[in-house]
Specification:
amino-acid biosynthesis; 2 domains; zinc; six-stranded mixed β-sheet; binds zinc ion; Aminopeptidase; four-stranded antiparallel β-sheet
Amino acid sequence: MNSKERIKLLSDLVAIQSVNNHEAEVAEYLKMVFRRHQIPAQIINYQPGRANLVVEIGHGHPITVFSGHADVVDPGGDWSTPPFVLTEKNRKLYGRGACDMKSALAAMVIAMLDLHEQADPFPGTVRFLLTVGEEVGEYGAEQLTNEGYMKDVDALIIGEPTGYEICYAHKGSLDVQITAMGTIAHSSMPQLGNNALQNLLDLIEVINHQIQTVSATDPAMGDFLFNFTVLNGGTQVNSIPGTAGVSLNARTIDEFDNAAVLNILRTAIAQLEQQDSKYNFDLNVLMDLPPVDGHAENQLVQRGQEVGQAVTGQTITTFGGTYTTDAAKFLVNKSQDFPFMIFGPGNQSLHSSNEYIEKSMYFNFVDIYKKLMINNGITH
Ligand SMILES: [Zn+2]
């Protein structure tokens, strides 16, 4: 595919406003692109308007998954170019999703089409998995994993924006909402009520006390993090509130994982509920993504460094990430030794206004992915 066609493909993808929804349009568009090259593609519906896509070339093992998500985050304001019109300025391509992560999707697709077109021999199977809802809970990755698309896989490459660096491990993420139930009363007669907000504050204090004793750090992923993020309760200044709620997010590591956090929360709730019948809490897990712990020394990562250096002339370093990705769902039943890496075109402009990708980096990743498809470094 020549450079004009490469830009056109990315521009078409950016034009689809897949803000945590409408991913079906991305899936349908890519299905059509593959069909034009006589490659069948399978739509896997998630919900009306939301669909994953599965495409394979080659046959047998090793099976290497190349994956990326179709959704983008809301563009917000403050753009100097229209966010859904890919715009080139100073060899940079601006647009929502240019960095996270439609340039990676385009690079993967082009690499597959080129390989197919040129009839380049490559071992095994390249399986492209396009997912929905990555930015909000890895819905598509969970669905595809449940439906068996990761079962026979030998290696996983996710094209999230790392730039010329490879991420081999990342933190988990846990979202929890806790509601305190009480009884509404006039504030002049509090004995007739049960102050849910006060009860919730008591619980927060117990939880804080416990969390402050935790000090856990992972050599690759960094520190365990815990934050209360949303607090609400009460409707009127002279009423005893009948309900109150708090939400929290924890960024977990192997040394202090999601189960350990939930244990602290549930123990604190049980402790108060046993202590006094006025305490009555409801705990709801909104999102539960485990940490992904890989090795920088795995053959896939080493091959990624080798290929990246060959294409760019730069040294490709490795790191542990603080964010979460679809890998949290894709790798649920895999061992720590499973060949996995996150390696995709990108920079720090993701999720911000004036998101962009350098044109050269986008093009380089077509070559990087093509080389990885021909040889992923795994001895099988
Ligand atoms: Zn992303």
